Amino acid sequence: MEGYDEYKPAMAMFALQFSYAGVALSTRAALLQGMSPSVFVVYRQAIATLVIAPLAYFTRKKSGGSSMGLRSFGLIFLASLIGVAINQNIYFQGLYLASSSMASAMSNLVPAVTFLIAFILGLEKVKIRSLRSIAKIVGTMLCVGGAMSMALVKGPKLFNSELPINNSLFGSGSSGDDHWILGCILLFGSCCCWSIWLILQVPASASYPDHLSLSAWMCFMATIQSAIITLFIEKDMEAWKLTTAMELGCSFFSGIVGSGVSFFVQAWVISQRGPLFSAMFNPLCTIIVTILAAIFLQEKIYTGGLVGGIGVIIGLYILLWGKAKDFDPNLHKNTSFHDQREQHIDDDDDQCLEKGSHHQVDLEEPLLSDQNQ
Q1: pLDDT tens digits for 193-226?
Q2: Three-state SS for 244?
Q3: Extended strands (E) in 94-215
Q4: Within 13 Å and on the Cβ side, how many CA atoms surround 193?
Protein backbone atom coordinates (compact mmCIF):
# COMPACT_ATOMS: atom_id res chain seq x y z
CA MET A 1 0.00 0.00 0.00
CA GLU A 2 2.91 2.34 0.69
CA GLY A 3 4.07 2.04 -2.93
CA TYR A 4 0.53 2.78 -4.11
CA ASP A 5 0.34 5.87 -1.90
CA GLU A 6 3.46 7.23 -3.59
CA TYR A 7 1.68 7.26 -6.94
CA LYS A 8 -1.54 8.86 -5.66
CA PRO A 9 -0.45 12.49 -6.37
CA ALA A 10 0.63 11.55 -9.91
CA MET A 11 -2.61 9.63 -10.52
CA ALA A 12 -4.62 12.57 -9.18
CA MET A 13 -2.85 15.05 -11.47
CA PHE A 14 -3.23 12.69 -14.43
CA ALA A 15 -6.99 12.48 -13.84
CA LEU A 16 -7.14 16.24 -13.29
CA GLN A 17 -5.64 16.91 -16.72
CA PHE A 18 -8.41 14.86 -18.33
CA SER A 19 -11.01 16.87 -16.40
CA TYR A 20 -9.36 20.10 -17.56
CA ALA A 21 -9.46 18.81 -21.14
CA GLY A 22 -13.13 17.91 -20.74
CA VAL A 23 -13.93 21.41 -19.51
CA ALA A 24 -12.00 23.04 -22.37
CA LEU A 25 -13.64 20.92 -25.06
CA SER A 26 -17.18 21.11 -23.67
CA THR A 27 -16.87 24.86 -23.23
CA ARG A 28 -15.60 25.30 -26.78
CA ALA A 29 -18.51 23.21 -28.09
CA ALA A 30 -21.05 25.25 -26.08
CA LEU A 31 -19.58 28.53 -27.33
CA LEU A 32 -19.72 27.33 -30.92
CA GLN A 33 -23.39 26.52 -30.43
CA GLY A 34 -24.05 30.16 -29.59
CA MET A 35 -23.58 30.48 -25.83
CA SER A 36 -22.30 33.89 -24.73
CA PRO A 37 -18.78 33.67 -23.22
CA SER A 38 -19.60 36.42 -20.70
CA VAL A 39 -22.83 34.73 -19.57
CA PHE A 40 -20.96 31.44 -19.25
CA VAL A 41 -18.44 33.07 -16.88
CA VAL A 42 -21.26 34.29 -14.62
CA TYR A 43 -22.93 30.89 -14.46
CA ARG A 44 -19.65 29.08 -13.90
CA GLN A 45 -18.61 31.31 -11.02
CA ALA A 46 -22.08 31.19 -9.46
CA ILE A 47 -22.06 27.39 -9.51
CA ALA A 48 -18.49 27.30 -8.14
CA THR A 49 -19.60 29.60 -5.31
CA LEU A 50 -22.50 27.30 -4.46
CA VAL A 51 -20.07 24.36 -4.33
CA ILE A 52 -17.27 25.95 -2.29
CA ALA A 53 -19.20 28.34 0.01
CA PRO A 54 -20.94 25.67 2.18
CA LEU A 55 -17.66 23.80 2.65
CA ALA A 56 -15.88 27.02 3.56
CA TYR A 57 -18.66 27.94 6.00
CA PHE A 58 -18.58 24.67 7.94
CA THR A 59 -14.77 24.53 7.90
CA ARG A 60 -14.60 28.10 9.15
CA LYS A 61 -17.18 27.34 11.85
CA LYS A 62 -15.07 24.48 13.22
CA SER A 63 -11.71 26.26 13.07
CA GLY A 64 -12.84 29.74 14.03
CA GLY A 65 -11.69 31.16 10.69
CA SER A 66 -10.03 34.50 9.98
CA SER A 67 -11.51 37.95 10.22
CA MET A 68 -11.70 40.06 7.08
CA GLY A 69 -10.49 43.63 7.34
CA LEU A 70 -10.54 46.44 4.80
CA ARG A 71 -7.12 45.43 3.44
CA SER A 72 -8.20 41.81 3.02
CA PHE A 73 -11.43 42.84 1.30
CA GLY A 74 -9.54 45.15 -1.08
CA LEU A 75 -7.01 42.47 -2.02
CA ILE A 76 -9.67 39.81 -2.55
CA PHE A 77 -11.79 42.22 -4.61
CA LEU A 78 -8.80 43.12 -6.80
CA ALA A 79 -7.69 39.49 -7.18
CA SER A 80 -11.17 38.32 -8.16
CA LEU A 81 -11.58 41.21 -10.61
CA ILE A 82 -8.26 40.70 -12.42
CA GLY A 83 -7.71 36.98 -11.95
CA VAL A 84 -11.27 35.73 -12.43
CA ALA A 85 -13.74 38.23 -13.88
CA ILE A 86 -11.49 39.93 -16.47
CA ASN A 87 -9.29 36.87 -16.93
CA GLN A 88 -12.09 34.45 -17.71
CA ASN A 89 -14.01 36.89 -19.91
CA ILE A 90 -11.06 37.44 -22.24
CA TYR A 91 -10.01 33.77 -21.99
CA PHE A 92 -13.33 32.42 -23.21
CA GLN A 93 -13.53 35.06 -25.92
CA GLY A 94 -10.06 33.91 -27.03
CA LEU A 95 -11.11 30.27 -26.76
CA TYR A 96 -14.01 30.95 -29.13
CA LEU A 97 -12.01 33.01 -31.63
CA ALA A 98 -8.93 30.74 -31.69
CA SER A 99 -9.29 27.09 -30.65
CA SER A 100 -9.34 24.86 -27.59
CA SER A 101 -5.91 23.43 -28.41
CA MET A 102 -4.46 26.95 -28.71
CA ALA A 103 -6.04 27.96 -25.39
CA SER A 104 -4.63 24.90 -23.66
CA ALA A 105 -1.16 25.48 -25.12
CA MET A 106 -1.20 29.14 -24.11
CA SER A 107 -1.92 28.19 -20.50
CA ASN A 108 1.62 26.78 -20.31
CA LEU A 109 2.86 30.37 -20.57
CA VAL A 110 1.60 31.24 -17.09
CA PRO A 111 4.79 30.24 -15.17
CA ALA A 112 6.95 32.18 -17.65
CA VAL A 113 4.78 35.30 -17.55
CA THR A 114 4.60 35.06 -13.75
CA PHE A 115 8.38 34.89 -13.55
CA LEU A 116 8.74 37.89 -15.87
CA ILE A 117 6.25 40.03 -13.93
CA ALA A 118 7.77 38.96 -10.59
CA PHE A 119 11.23 39.90 -11.87
CA ILE A 120 10.02 43.34 -12.96
CA LEU A 121 8.42 43.88 -9.53
CA GLY A 122 11.59 42.75 -7.76
CA LEU A 123 10.01 39.60 -6.31
CA GLU A 124 12.24 37.25 -8.31
CA LYS A 125 16.03 37.39 -8.12
CA VAL A 126 18.20 36.57 -11.12
CA LYS A 127 21.93 35.87 -10.96
CA ILE A 128 23.60 35.99 -14.35
CA ARG A 129 26.29 33.52 -13.23
CA SER A 130 23.75 31.06 -11.85
CA LEU A 131 22.89 28.18 -14.18
CA ARG A 132 19.36 27.99 -12.78
CA SER A 133 18.81 31.71 -13.30
CA ILE A 134 19.96 31.34 -16.90
CA ALA A 135 17.52 28.42 -17.25
CA LYS A 136 14.69 30.65 -16.06
CA ILE A 137 15.56 33.29 -18.66
CA VAL A 138 16.02 30.79 -21.51
CA GLY A 139 12.83 28.95 -20.55
CA THR A 140 10.88 32.20 -20.52
CA MET A 141 12.24 33.17 -23.95
CA LEU A 142 11.34 29.77 -25.40
CA CYS A 143 7.82 29.99 -23.98
CA VAL A 144 7.22 33.47 -25.39
CA GLY A 145 8.84 32.59 -28.73
CA GLY A 146 6.73 29.43 -28.98
CA ALA A 147 3.57 31.40 -28.25
CA MET A 148 4.42 33.90 -30.98
CA SER A 149 5.01 31.02 -33.39
CA MET A 150 1.62 29.50 -32.56
CA ALA A 151 -0.12 32.82 -33.15
CA LEU A 152 1.74 34.20 -36.17
CA VAL A 153 3.22 31.22 -38.06
CA LYS A 154 0.56 28.75 -39.11
CA GLY A 155 2.30 26.88 -41.89
CA PRO A 156 0.80 23.84 -43.65
CA LYS A 157 -2.18 22.09 -42.12
CA LEU A 158 -1.36 18.73 -40.59
CA PHE A 159 -4.83 17.47 -39.64
CA ASN A 160 -8.39 18.15 -40.80
CA SER A 161 -7.12 20.12 -43.77
CA GLU A 162 -9.84 18.92 -46.14
CA LEU A 163 -12.76 18.47 -43.77
CA PRO A 164 -15.85 20.70 -44.16
CA ILE A 165 -16.57 23.17 -41.37
CA ASN A 166 -19.83 21.51 -40.35
CA ASN A 167 -18.20 18.09 -39.89
CA SER A 168 -17.85 18.50 -36.11
CA LEU A 169 -19.38 15.91 -33.80
CA PHE A 170 -21.38 18.73 -32.22
CA GLY A 171 -22.55 20.11 -35.55
CA SER A 172 -20.84 23.48 -35.12
CA GLY A 173 -17.37 23.36 -36.51
CA SER A 174 -14.69 25.95 -36.14
CA SER A 175 -15.40 29.61 -35.63
CA GLY A 176 -13.16 30.38 -38.60
CA ASP A 177 -9.69 31.82 -39.13
CA ASP A 178 -10.68 35.47 -39.53
CA HIS A 179 -10.12 36.38 -35.88
CA TRP A 180 -7.30 33.94 -35.08
CA ILE A 181 -4.74 36.63 -34.13
CA LEU A 182 -7.25 38.47 -31.94
CA GLY A 183 -8.08 35.21 -30.18
CA CYS A 184 -4.38 34.54 -29.53
CA ILE A 185 -3.91 38.06 -28.15
CA LEU A 186 -6.85 37.60 -25.80
CA LEU A 187 -5.46 34.25 -24.63
CA PHE A 188 -2.08 35.85 -23.95
CA GLY A 189 -3.80 38.65 -22.06
CA SER A 190 -5.57 35.99 -20.02
CA CYS A 191 -2.18 34.48 -19.11
CA CYS A 192 -1.01 37.91 -17.93
CA CYS A 193 -4.12 38.35 -15.78
CA TRP A 194 -3.69 34.88 -14.32
CA SER A 195 -0.04 35.61 -13.52
CA ILE A 196 -1.00 38.83 -11.75
CA TRP A 197 -3.60 36.82 -9.83
CA LEU A 198 -0.92 34.38 -8.67
CA ILE A 199 1.27 37.25 -7.47
CA LEU A 200 -1.68 38.84 -5.68
CA GLN A 201 -2.10 35.60 -3.71
CA VAL A 202 1.00 36.49 -1.70
CA PRO A 203 -0.45 39.54 0.13
CA ALA A 204 -4.01 38.18 -0.02
CA SER A 205 -3.06 34.90 1.66
CA ALA A 206 -0.99 36.71 4.25
CA SER A 207 -3.86 39.05 5.06
CA TYR A 208 -6.56 36.33 4.96
CA PRO A 209 -4.91 32.92 5.58
CA ASP A 210 -8.12 30.85 5.44
CA HIS A 211 -7.58 29.55 1.89
CA LEU A 212 -10.90 27.76 1.46
CA SER A 213 -12.87 30.76 2.65
CA LEU A 214 -10.65 32.99 0.51
CA SER A 215 -11.51 30.97 -2.59
CA ALA A 216 -15.23 31.11 -1.75
CA TRP A 217 -15.08 34.89 -1.39
CA MET A 218 -13.23 35.21 -4.70
CA CYS A 219 -15.82 33.10 -6.51
CA PHE A 220 -18.65 35.13 -4.96
CA MET A 221 -17.11 38.50 -5.79
CA ALA A 222 -16.19 37.30 -9.28
CA THR A 223 -19.81 36.27 -9.85
CA ILE A 224 -21.04 39.78 -9.06
CA GLN A 225 -18.24 41.45 -11.04
CA SER A 226 -18.78 39.19 -14.04
CA ALA A 227 -22.54 39.82 -13.94
CA ILE A 228 -21.95 43.59 -14.04
CA ILE A 229 -19.50 43.23 -16.93
CA THR A 230 -21.96 41.02 -18.82
CA LEU A 231 -24.79 43.52 -18.37
CA PHE A 232 -22.66 46.07 -20.25
CA ILE A 233 -21.49 43.61 -22.92
CA GLU A 234 -24.68 41.65 -23.57
CA LYS A 235 -27.59 43.97 -24.36
CA ASP A 236 -29.86 41.11 -25.38
CA MET A 237 -31.41 39.46 -22.30
CA GLU A 238 -32.07 36.34 -24.37
CA ALA A 239 -28.35 35.60 -24.12
CA TRP A 240 -28.87 34.65 -20.45
CA LYS A 241 -31.05 31.69 -21.40
CA LEU A 242 -29.44 28.26 -21.58
CA THR A 243 -31.25 26.79 -24.56
CA THR A 244 -29.42 23.48 -25.05
CA ALA A 245 -28.36 20.56 -22.87
CA MET A 246 -24.75 21.23 -23.90
CA GLU A 247 -24.84 24.77 -22.50
CA LEU A 248 -26.48 23.67 -19.24
CA GLY A 249 -24.21 20.66 -18.77
CA CYS A 250 -21.10 22.67 -19.61
CA SER A 251 -21.95 25.33 -17.01
CA PHE A 252 -22.43 22.76 -14.25
CA PHE A 253 -19.45 20.64 -15.29
CA SER A 254 -17.13 23.66 -15.43
CA GLY A 255 -18.38 25.08 -12.14
CA ILE A 256 -18.33 21.82 -10.16
CA VAL A 257 -15.38 19.99 -11.71
CA GLY A 258 -13.39 22.83 -13.26
CA SER A 259 -13.51 25.03 -10.16
CA GLY A 260 -14.82 23.02 -7.20
CA VAL A 261 -13.28 19.55 -7.46
CA SER A 262 -10.04 20.76 -9.06
CA PHE A 263 -9.44 23.08 -6.09
CA PHE A 264 -9.44 20.21 -3.62
CA VAL A 265 -7.41 17.88 -5.81
CA GLN A 266 -4.73 20.39 -6.71
CA ALA A 267 -4.54 21.81 -3.18
CA TRP A 268 -3.97 18.27 -1.86
CA VAL A 269 -1.32 17.50 -4.51
CA ILE A 270 0.51 20.74 -3.77
CA SER A 271 0.47 19.96 -0.04
CA GLN A 272 2.05 16.56 -0.79
CA ARG A 273 4.55 17.36 -3.55
CA GLY A 274 4.69 21.13 -3.99
CA PRO A 275 3.70 23.51 -6.81
CA LEU A 276 6.40 22.42 -9.27
CA PHE A 277 5.12 18.85 -9.27
CA SER A 278 1.66 20.15 -10.11
CA ALA A 279 2.95 22.44 -12.89
CA MET A 280 4.87 19.57 -14.55
CA PHE A 281 1.58 17.96 -15.62
CA ASN A 282 0.23 21.03 -17.45
CA PRO A 283 1.52 20.02 -20.92
CA LEU A 284 -0.37 16.72 -20.62
CA CYS A 285 -3.65 18.64 -20.84
CA THR A 286 -2.42 20.37 -24.00
CA ILE A 287 -1.70 17.02 -25.66
CA ILE A 288 -5.07 15.58 -24.63
CA VAL A 289 -7.00 18.64 -25.79
CA THR A 290 -5.15 18.81 -29.13
CA ILE A 291 -5.90 15.16 -29.94
CA LEU A 292 -9.53 15.20 -28.81
CA ALA A 293 -10.24 18.60 -30.41
CA ALA A 294 -8.95 17.31 -33.76
CA ILE A 295 -11.20 14.23 -33.46
CA PHE A 296 -14.43 15.63 -32.02
CA LEU A 297 -14.38 19.33 -32.92
CA GLN A 298 -12.48 18.94 -36.20
CA GLU A 299 -10.06 21.69 -35.22
CA LYS A 300 -7.25 22.23 -37.71
CA ILE A 301 -3.68 21.63 -36.53
CA TYR A 302 -0.98 23.69 -38.22
CA THR A 303 2.76 23.09 -38.42
CA GLY A 304 3.53 26.45 -36.83
CA GLY A 305 1.18 25.74 -33.95
CA LEU A 306 2.70 22.29 -33.38
CA VAL A 307 6.29 23.59 -33.42
CA GLY A 308 5.35 26.55 -31.23
CA GLY A 309 3.52 24.31 -28.78
CA ILE A 310 6.55 22.04 -28.47
CA GLY A 311 8.71 25.13 -27.89
CA VAL A 312 6.39 26.32 -25.13
CA ILE A 313 6.46 22.91 -23.42
CA ILE A 314 10.27 22.65 -23.63
CA GLY A 315 10.58 26.21 -22.31
CA LEU A 316 8.18 25.38 -19.48
CA TYR A 317 10.27 22.43 -18.31
CA ILE A 318 13.50 24.42 -18.55
CA LEU A 319 11.89 27.17 -16.48
CA LEU A 320 10.60 24.63 -13.94
CA TRP A 321 14.09 23.15 -13.67
CA GLY A 322 15.40 26.63 -12.93
CA LYS A 323 12.69 27.06 -10.29
CA ALA A 324 13.31 23.60 -8.81
CA LYS A 325 15.96 25.01 -6.46
CA ASP A 326 13.23 27.13 -4.87
CA PHE A 327 11.62 23.93 -3.68
CA ASP A 328 13.55 20.69 -3.21
CA PRO A 329 11.15 17.74 -3.16
CA ASN A 330 13.92 15.44 -1.89
CA LEU A 331 14.43 17.54 1.20
CA HIS A 332 12.81 16.14 4.34
CA LYS A 333 10.90 13.40 2.50
CA ASN A 334 8.94 12.50 5.61
CA THR A 335 7.48 15.97 6.03
CA SER A 336 4.70 17.70 4.15
CA PHE A 337 5.29 20.47 1.65
CA HIS A 338 4.12 23.14 4.06
CA ASP A 339 6.55 21.88 6.72
CA GLN A 340 9.34 21.94 4.14
CA ARG A 341 8.56 25.56 3.32
CA GLU A 342 9.30 26.53 6.90
CA GLN A 343 12.47 24.41 7.15
CA HIS A 344 14.10 24.99 3.77
CA ILE A 345 15.98 28.21 2.99
CA ASP A 346 17.93 28.24 -0.24
CA ASP A 347 21.67 28.97 0.04
CA ASP A 348 21.86 30.72 -3.32
CA ASP A 349 19.03 33.16 -2.65
CA ASP A 350 17.63 31.80 -5.90
CA GLN A 351 14.03 32.09 -4.73
CA CYS A 352 11.12 34.51 -4.51
CA LEU A 353 10.75 36.28 -1.16
CA GLU A 354 7.98 38.62 -0.13
CA LYS A 355 9.43 41.85 1.20
CA GLY A 356 9.43 41.90 4.95
CA SER A 357 8.48 38.21 5.22
CA HIS A 358 10.51 35.13 6.10
CA HIS A 359 8.24 32.71 4.22
CA GLN A 360 9.05 31.45 0.75
CA VAL A 361 6.73 32.77 -1.92
CA ASP A 362 5.52 30.23 -4.45
CA LEU A 363 4.24 32.36 -7.29
CA GLU A 364 3.18 29.29 -9.27
CA GLU A 365 0.98 27.86 -6.48
CA PRO A 366 -2.71 28.34 -7.27
CA LEU A 367 -5.43 28.36 -4.62
CA LEU A 368 -8.18 27.69 -7.12
CA SER A 369 -6.81 26.10 -10.23
CA ASP A 370 -8.05 27.60 -13.43
CA GLN A 371 -5.85 26.15 -16.05
CA ASN A 372 -8.81 25.68 -18.26
CA GLN A 373 -9.84 29.08 -16.96
Answers
A1: 988 988 888 888 888 888 788 888 988 999 999 9
A2: coil
A3: 157-159
A4: 23
